[in-house]
Fold this sequence. Notes:
Blueprint: E1 7-12, E2 27-28, E3 31-32, H1 33-43, E4 49-53, H2 57-65, H3 85-98, E5 105-108, H4 118-130, E6 135-141, E7 177-187, H5 188-194, E8 202-206, H6 218-229
Parallel strand pairs: 1-4, 1-5, 6-8
Antiparallel strand pairs: 2-3, 5-7, 6-7
Amino acid sequence: xxxDKRIVAMIPARKGSKGYPGKNIRPLAGKPLIAWTxxxxxRSRYIDRIIVSTDSKKxxxxxxKYGAEVPFxxxxxxxxxxxxxxxxxxxxxxxxxKNNDACDILILLQPTSPLRTEGDIDKAIKSLFSKNAKAIxxxxxxxxxxxxxxxxxxxxxxxxxxxxxxxxxxxxxxxFYRLNGAIYLAYVGYFEKRKGFWGNNTFSYVMPEERxxxxxxxxxxxxxxxxxxx
Length: 230
């Protein structure tokens, strides 16, 4: 709890994954991937409750072992490749209200961000109040879009770069940021009204690139292993 607000963390972890099958329970530095997020959330000074939303009995067992609650199995319609995280969050909030167990703030922590720390979580929560925000989303620096574009089927780069950008040094370009998927949080009322985390009162929490790996492939997983050693 922070400033008398009850904070519930949701960790969404379905069993299916096209990018890297079974990634949520693959061992990373001696623990299942999801365990890193559960343990970080447990170390938070402000989170009151940690709930894993999953459709997998195996993930359920592992999550409970590491200290999270799994009070239900997620419906199949919310556990396929087309399922949206927002819908999973609404399902949890609806379940909580049905059980007379509402919260003030919902924080979504994806298990695919194992390098995010409890310090990141608590700083993001505190920034919600210090910025007088209604929601927070974590970001990190990204490659500059000046050097990115779509390609036609034949691979021709005729229109890939604007001429005035071809001779710009990287250090002379403005800094751009991307969502890193590690932390989303919002007041429940704002989340319900906006049908998600996005709106005029959503602010950023900036994280370093080395803690911003979002595992979606085997390459991401191997990179997380390397970074975790250091």
